[in-house]
Each structure stands twice: as C-alpha cells, then as structure tokens.
Design brief:
- The structure is a single chain.
- The chain is an alpha+beta fold.
- Among the domains are: 90 residues, DnaJ domain (Helix Hairpins, Orthogonal Bundle), CATH 1.10.287.110; 110 residues, Urease metallochaperone UreE, N-terminal domain (HSP40/DNAj peptide-binding domain, Sandwich), CATH 2.60.260.20.
- Helices cover 24% and strands 27% of the residues.
- It contains nine helices and 15 strands.
- The chain has a four-stranded mixed sheet.
- A hairpin with a 2-residue loop joins strand 12 and strand 13.
- The longest helix is centred in the N-terminal third of the chain and has 15 residues.
- The radius of gyration is 37 Å and the shape is elongated.
Length: 371
C-alpha cells in the first residue's frame, strides 16, 4: 500500500506564498534540529530527509511551480537526490554559512588522547575504610624513541603529498542543495599536513606505542559498588603531544557475609541465645573497624537493634559517618531430653503475664538508651 506524502510547505512550516529566503531559513532551522550528526533520535534521520526533499523541490522555481499546480503527482519522473549521502552536519553548515559550526579554525588540532578503563575488586571493609591498590592496564603512550614525533633521528618533517599539506581530503558530493565539498581527515598524515621523511622504526611513524602500565590508586572510604575513580591524564596519549585522556577505575565491592550496606549505614545480624536475650548480657560483634562490645538488655526480642554510632561508611564528599545497626536474631533451642523439659517447665512456672509484656514503649526504650 502506497504511503501518502506530507505537504512540503507543512514539512518546512512555511506558508504557500513564502519567499525563497523564508524557505531557506525554514530549512536551516530544520537541519540544525534534525540532522543525524546532532540529533541521536532514531526518527530524526527520516524527518531530516523529508525536510531536505521538501527544500530541494521548493527552492527550485521550476519544480515548485509544478508542485504548486499538480502536487506530488507533478513531480513524478524527476530525478531525486540521494539524501542518505548528503554528508555531515559540518558539510551542511559550511554550505549555508561557509564556516565551522563549532567555531574552530581551518586547521586540524592534534587529537586529544582517549580515556582508558580498568576494573578493580575490593573487600567490603576496604570500601568502608579506603585502600590503596595497584592496577594494571593497557595504554597507548608516547613513543620513547622519537618522543612522540614519529620521525627517525635526524629525519625532517615534509609536506604530506596525499593532502598537499592541508591535513584534509576533499570530495565533491551531491545533496539536496546541489554539489558540496565533503572533507575528511587525511589518513596518511592524521590531519597534521606533514609526515616524517623517515618514520621512527619503533612506532612506524605513529608517535605512539602500546604498553602495560602499573599504577597505584587510592580508593576513598565510602565508595560503593559501581562507582568510579577518575585519574586525570592517566589514559591514552594524545597525537603529537596533545593532552592524554583520563583513566577510570570501576570499583566492584565483594560481598561479605557479616555485613550489608544500607546507605551510609552498615547492618549486621547476630544470633543471640534465648537465655541471654532473657537476662541480658554483653555481646562481641564484628565491625569494619574491628570487634566491638554491645550490651544486650533483658527481654531483648528478635528484630531489636543496637546502634553503634559512627561505625558506618564515611561520606566521600563532605563530613560525617554512618552508623552500624546490629540486628538481634534470638535463637530458641530444641529440648533434647526429659531433664531439659522439666527445667523449662520449672522456668515457665516462675514467669507471669508481666514477663511477657509486648513492649516497654518509647519512654522505656529512651530510659535504656540513656542508662
């Protein structure tokens, strides 16, 4: 089933009596908004081609006259442009304004080095306290033989014959606005416009080589799994002395059966015998700083918590530190023999309703907290 084409004036958002300049301005706006080089939306490319087709027809006096008189039917049999080969957004901007859309000069600057990445696994305790670890990763670095110049000792730089020293190759392509010049970086000189008369034997003239790097990294306390540490200037070397990229260390925190993280707090669950929960006592619990002693008050129930202030995670940016919440898990034993059952029965006879109070309430807990 054939698709009905939209009205060209509607596509560009102009009236049927629009002047040539108004049509051109309308297409400029559409191009800035929809060209695939600047708009990542999957549907933008199709809309751009539609706008380019509309402009090609309406910007030509003959085709516009046919379209105004007979609509899309009047254009049948006319050659259509290859909108997919229109070129980059820079080509489009140059065609309209004769300049660089990003405000750069005509020459090409050496490319900034790419960023590098490495993964690092640390323990739960290390994530809380911080740790210094060594990482190893592959990096592109400046050639030690030619110091990044790409030329052999005693050689000189000569004009690149492939691009005549321009650093760019130009190609004429046909688009909806006629013929345009598309430029690309010269692959022979990488845009420098010159090449060494004799390339460096170590790097083959590239000025850079790959090597293994070992680096000591300080992981801050409080970091969480999935976060990254950025080391500026530790990535891949740039071209011909351009600044290097950065190194990103992706941190993965190993699980620890003793602890769980909840925001800035550390949560620990400890098992307490029912007898100790009944009469109270002292308990030794693990923390990220080592062992600590906590008091178990008489009548402690499963799910009750004891809070250790300042034993959690520090804030990476700012001050303060979270707490450790010790969750009590009261364990009830199985009675193994008749003697045990008699002992439990004797205990039950000594208890009354007051011994099984549901909760001592807020003020009771407050009194215990300040005891």
């Amino acid at each position: 089933m054939a698709t009905t084409k939209r009205d060209y004036y509607e596509i560009l958002g102009v009236a049927r009596g629009a002047t040539e300049e108004e049509i051109k301005k309308a297409f400029r706006r559409k191009a800035r908004e929809l060209h695939p080089d600047v708009n990542p939306d999957p549907g933008a490319e199709a809309q751009f081609k539609e706008a380019a087709e509309a402009y090609e027809v309406l910007s030509n006096a003959e085709s516009r006259e046919l379209y105004d008189a007979y609509g899309h039917e009047g254009l049948r049999g006319r050659a259509a442009s290859d909108f997919a080969d229109f070129g980059t957004f820079q080509d489009l901007f140059d065609a309209f304004f004769g300049g660089d859309v990003f405000g750069r000069g005509g020459g090409r600057r050496a490319a900034h080095g790419q960023d590098a990445g490495v993964a690092l696994s640390i323990s739960f305790v290390e994530s809380a306290l911080g740790v210094e670890r060594e990482v190893e990763y592959d990096a592109v670095v400046a050639c030690g033989t030619c110091h990044g110049s790409g030329q052999a000792e005693g050689a000189r730089m000569e004009r690149c014959t492939a691009c005549a020293g321009q650093g760019q190759l130009r190609q004429i392509v046909r688009g909806p606005l006629g013929q345009f010049i598309r430029t690309q970086v010269c692959p022979t000189c990488s845009g420098a416009g010159e090449v060494p008369s004799e390339p460096c034997a170590t790097c083959g003239g590239a000025g850079r080589v790959a090597e293994k790097r070992r680096l000591s990294v300080q992981i801050p306390g409080g970091i969480a799994s999935g976060q990254q540490v950025r080391l500026v200037g530790r990535g891949h070397a740039g071209e011909r002395g351009a600044p290097p990229g950065d190194l990103y260390v992706a941190v993965e925190v190993e699980a620890d059966e003793r602890f769980r993280r909840d925001g800035m707090d550390v949560v620990t669950r400890v098992a307490v015998p029912v007898t100790e929960a009944m009469v109270g006592g002292n308990l030794t619990v693990p923390t990220v700083d080592g062992e600590a002693h906590v008091e178990i008050r008489p009548g402690t129930q499963s799910g009750d918590q004891v809070v250790l202030r300042g034993k959690g995670f520090p804030a990476i940016q700012g001050r303060g530190r979270g707490d450790q919440r010790v969750v009590i898990d009261v364990r009830v034993p199985k009675v193994q023999n008749d003697e045990g059952r008699k002992a439990v029965q004797r205990l039950a006879e000594t208890l009354d309703d007051k011994s099984y109070r549901e909760d001592e309430g807020f003020f009771g807990r407050l009194k215990h907290a300040f005891r």
